[in-house]
Specification:
The complex is a heterodimer of chains A (735) and B (151).
Chain A: E1 22-24, E2 27-30, H1 36-44, E3 59-61, E4 67-71, H2 80-92, E5 99-103, H3 108-111, H4 127-154, E6 161-164, E7 167-170, E8 175-178, H5 179-187, E9 235-240, E10 248-253, H6 255-259, E11 263-269, E12 272-277, H7 280-289, E13 291-295, H8 304-314, E14 320-325, H9 328-333, E15 337-345, E16 357-362, E17 368-372, H10 377-388, E18 395-399, H11 415-426, E19 433-436, H12 439-444, E20 452-460, E21 466-475, H13 485-488, E22 489-490, E23 493-494, H14 495-498, E24 511-517, H15 532-549, H16 554-561, H17 566-578, E25 591-600, E26 603-614, E27 617-628, H18 635-654, E28 660-661, E29 664-665, E30 683-688, H19 706-718
Parallel strand pairs in A: 4-5, 9-19, 17-18, 21-24, 27-30
Antiparallel strand pairs in A: 1-2, 2-3, 3-4, 6-7, 7-8, 9-12, 10-13, 11-12, 14-24, 15-20, 16-17, 16-19, 20-21, 22-23, 25-26, 26-27, 28-29
Helix pairs in contact in A: 2-4, 4-5, 10-11, 15-19
Chain B: E1 2-6, E2 9-13, H1 21-28, E3 47-50, E4 53-56, E5 69-71, H2 79-90, H3 100-113, H4 119-126, H5 136-150
Parallel strand pairs in B: 1-5
Antiparallel strand pairs in B: 1-2, 3-4, 3-5
Helix pairs in contact in B: 2-3, 2-5, 3-4
The structure holds FE2/S2 (inorganic) cluster (2 copies).
One FE2/S2 (inorganic) cluster (FES) binds next to loops of chain B.
């Protein structure tokens, strides 16, 4: 028997979010008075300065004192829900014990990401950074309205009223009221457009120890992910996809599949053939029984080795110029020493723990409810609407906790949302469709970190100073052909291919960065820290090589080049100090320290890795990290993100790669693409640089520096340079 | 019709005896706390207890369970479970949280057999549980913390 339960809390009505403050069942809803002129600008393009920064529809206070913060982002584990609620609650002077959170519906006018222009979405480690002022103002506005309501009802000046931990007080007359008691009256107050914000010295929650809001639900089985959605009468769909990217269905024999117990339907959709069943197991059995013939005429049929060889051949030719200064080639020609290096990087799957999935249900009035780990909300909404032939206002998004993403849940074409919608359409919306990608579907489904090659050349003068730097990169552009192309791609150069290299903070007297956009049929995507996943390895290993060639200490050599980057320098110094970096100490045989420092997404991270390397085996013993993320909204979450970045990235340093044989992905599950495991996890120590700068993100920036710190440590331990990823540990044999 | 006892409650399930317990729990009994990660015994996200022993629900056919008592993250209780949960919460172990039902079920299994596990014991008992968010350092610390609180 398929029993069903309502798996998701009802989403507050959209009406409650619009307009100014409104009273809904005794609740204070702080909204922003809509200014049509501002929205016209917001809709027209990504002019960030024109967007409203005033309080928005981010907080509701109920008669029972609960304060619900509306979260416009996806929380895929990075803890932004806790941080976002903290920012608002601090300005509100709320009692943290009464703070709840809810995920916002899709609405670009209220919940857009300022870093994405008119799009609501989460990525690029922007959640805290783009919400910082917005949520502070939302909290401060709500606080001012509570104070105004108390002042009015007590007939005292607002200036004499204080607020602390969810209670509003007038000391002189010895009166006080809880937020819940004032909520209704506060809702009738005008919404201040420019409320006074706290001085950072007054922060109570920001920078302190605030526990994660999701720790309880994620330790007793009650947290609902989209894979846990169970709608009344839902059917589960599993899709047979072409084994090669770009392949299409030629013919289908579904007789045996339909005969499998539990299978209710089989439909052909643009991305393959969907088997629908009463449960996941039956759908998987049904798919096994399916006979599909594929048309590979437009498919990518090459092996990854062949694609790589092609990349390397193209690197012999000049590419598009991403950045240049002076005559790099001439400067190198006249150098005392010239170093060259090549780095290759494989395709990488995100392999989030929760495989991709989504559920779409048709309502009686022909509108639709979408349940998923929504990451590009308004794009996903538009894609679902287009696939179902309705306008976007007929599509309601219900964002769930996501079991990881690392970028995969955010595709500019909203791939798996479109697939779910196409199944709903093919089945006439009869039953809610719960699309499940198995682990194999998820891993073999493309949208990988691109396969990239870097080739570098640099000259040193007699004193070891860099004379010139030539750097050529090839990889498939993530952005070309997507809705983000006009924002990110300039003259054919996709910033996400060269970020972290062509904008290096190292002072180079002459340089030339060139890039080729690879032509291939493998779908690619941002993978936790995007271009920095490979540029940091190329830059930080090569700088290390130059330091050694110059006979200099790697930390001191970097600091000498970072005069224009004080925050990165300070971060590097802190990591070196905490790791006990000592240029005079001779390395033990087989054990070494390696350093790397890199800026990404406006955050600065340095790492020192302590590695033992013997007989083709590498053990990372300890990683000491320093980070500068501006104001540390939640230091413990920041530490956790860096610890997690190490655990996440380590397997990509040691072994992970996605390969294709004749176009078919070979690694399909965790046996062949094995994540880091407990016994491999190094001790990670994280130090935070104190800062009053506006906060930046930390979901991604811990990742880029891990690989080069390990590579450089292996060099210190063995004298061997392992440049490409994953590290060629077999090449270490005999070390 | 098969009978399954889950968290002390008897259920009948109308499904193929070959069906892995994972899908019977999630799709037929609406116990969605037990997670699917790989389906091939590589990740431990589906870990439940069968008569108190951690097993991979994706590898356990419902036809083979018989009268054994199934305990899931939703129902696991007792001193060890309480200590583990409270250590997990105190240290804010979770990130995405998707692997954590399995991690917790494995950790409870470990601490029920071994009151004072060493780091090597933890490696041995927990290596089958993947955390893609990389929360291992805190998982290790939480297991030690739970052991201390139980001592
Ligand atoms: S789902 Fe059972 S071990 Fe991965
Ligand atoms: S917390 Fe995300 S996989 Fe473990």
């Amino acid at each position: 028997m398929l029993k069903v339960r309502q798996a998701t809390p009802p989403v507050p009505s959209r009406r409650a979010f619009l307009g100014g403050a409104t009273v809904a069942a005794g609740a204070l809803v702080v909204g922003f008075t809509l200014d049509p002129a501002k929205f016209a600008r917001a809709a027209a393009g990504p002019d960030l300065s024109a967007l409203p920064a005033a309080p928005n529809a981010f907080v509701r206070i109920a008669a029972d004192d609960t304060v619900t913060v509306v979260i416009k982002h996806l929380d895929m584990g990075q803890g932004n829900t806790t941080g976002l609620a903290t920012i608002l609650a601090d300005e509100l002077d709320a009692d943290w014990a009464t703070v709840r959170t809810t995920f916002a519906p899709a609405d670009a006018t209220l919940y857009n990401n300022f870093a994405f222009g008119p799009v609501q979405g989460t990525g690029g480690s922007t959640a805290i950074a783009n919400s910082w002022v917005q949520l502070r103002k939302a909290g401060a506005a709500a606080r001012a309205m509570l104070v105004a309501a108390a002042a009015e009802s007590w007939a005292v000046p607002a200036s004499e009223i204080t607020v602390e931990s969810g209670t509003v007080r007038h000391a002189a007359s010895n009166r006080q009221a809880r937020f819940g008691e004032l909520a209704e009256a506060a809702a009738a107050q005008p919404v201040p457009q420019e409320p006074r914000l706290k001085d950072p010295s007054q922060f109570k929650l920001i920078g302190g120890k605030v526990p994660r809001v999701d720790s309880v639900a994620k330790t007793d089985g009650t947290a609902i992910y989209s894979l846990d959605i169970r709608r009344p009468g839902q059917v589960t769909a599993v899709v047979a996809h072409s084994p090669r990217f770009g392949g299409t269905v030629k013919s289908v024999d579904d007789k045996a599949a339909r005969a499998v117990a539990g299978v209710v339907d089989v439909v052909t959709i643009p991305t393959g053939v969907a088997v629908l069943a009463r449960d996941t197991w039956s759908a998987m059995k049904g798919r096994e029984a399916l006979r599909v013939t594929w048309d590979d005429s437009a498919a990518e049929t090459r092996s990854s080795d062949a694609i790589l060889a092609d990349h390397r051949k193209r690197l012999d030719t000049p590419g598009l110029v991403a950045a240049k200064k002076g005559d790099a080639a001439g400067a190198i020609a006249g150098s005392a020493k010239v170093l060259e290096a090549e780095f290759t990087f494989p395709y990488l799957a995100h392999a989030a723990m929760e495989p991709l999935n989504a559920t779409i249900e048709r309502a009686a009035d022909g509108s639709y409810d979408v349940f998923a780990g929504c990451q590009l909300h308004t794009i996903e909404q538009a894609v679902v609407a287009a696939n179902l032939g309705v306008t976007t206002d007929k599509v309601r998004l219900h964002t769930q906790w996501a079991g990881g993403s690392f970028g995969r849940r955010a595709t500019p074409g909203a791939d798996y949302f479109a697939e779910t919608a196409s199944i709903v359409r093919a089945t006439g919306g009869k039953a809610p469709v719960h699309l499940v990608w198995t682990r194999e579907d998820d891993m073999a489904g493309g949208f990988y970190r691109p396969m990239v090659v870097h080739r570098l050349r640099a000259g040193l003068d007699a004193k070891g100073a860099i004379t010139g730097w030539e750097h050529r990169t090839i990889g498939k552009s993530i952005m070309i052909g997507t809705a983000f192309e006009t924002m990110i791609v300039k003259d054919g150069v996709d910033a996400t291919t060269v970020e972290g290299a062509s904008d290096t903070p190292y002072a180079l007297p002459a340089y030339r960065f060139e890039v080729h956009n690879a032509r291939e049929g493998v779908p690619v995507l941002w993978w936790r820290s995007v271009g920095h996943t490979h540029t940091a390895q190329a830059m930080e290993v090569f700088v290390d090589e130059l330091a050694h060639a110059a006979g200099a200490d790697p930390v001191a050599y970097r600091l000498g080049l970072l005069g224009g980057a004080p925050r990165l320098s300070a971060t590097l110094r802190l990591a070196a100090e905490k790791a006990g970096w000592d240029p005079k100490k001779a390395a033990e045989k087989g054990r070494g320290l390696g350093v790397a420092a890199h800026e990404s997404f406006g955050s600065y991270v340095a790492m020192v890795a302590d590695v033992t390397a013997e007989d083709g085996k590498v053990k990372v013993n300890r990683v000491v990290a320093a980070v500068d993320v501006g104001v540390a909204v939640n230091p413990d979450v920041i530490r956790a993100q860096v610890e997690g970045a190490v655990g996440f990235a380590l397997s990509s340093v040691l072994r992970n790669r996605i390969t294709l044989r004749d176009g078919v992905v070979q690694e399909r599950n965790f046996d062949a693409y094995e994540p880091t495991r407990m016994s491999e996890m190094p001790v990670v120590e994280v130090h935070i640089v104190p800062s009053t700068a506006a906060p930046t993100g930390i979901g991604e920036p811990g990742v880029p520096v891990l690989a080069p710190s390990i590579s450089n440590a292996i060099f210190a331990a063995t004298g061997q340079r392992l440049r490409s990823l994953p590290l060629d540990l077999a090449g270490l044999k005999g070390a | 019709m098969l009978k399954l006892t889950v968290n002390g409650v008897a259920h009948t399930v109308d499904a193929d005896p070959e069906m892995p317990l994972l899908w019977a729990l999630r799709d037929h009994l609406n116990q969605t706390g037990t997670k699917y990660g790989c389906g091939i015994a590589q990740c431990g996200a589906c870990t439940v207890h069968l008569d108190g022993q951690p097993v991979r629900a994706c590898q356990t056919r419902i036809g083979d369970i018989g009268a054994a008592k199934i305990t899931t993250i939703e129902g696991v209780s007792g001193k060890v479970a309480d200590a583990v949960r409270s250590a997990w919460r105190g240290l804010d172990v979770v990130q995405c949280g998707y692997c954590q039902s399995g991690q917790i079920m494995s950790a409870i299994g470990l601490l029920s057999e071994n009151a004072k596990p060493t780091d090597a014991d933890i490696d041995g008992a927990m290596d089958g549980n993947v955390c893609r968010c990389g929360t291992y350092q805190r998982i290790r610390a939480a297991i030690h913390e739970a052991a201390r609180s139980l001592a």
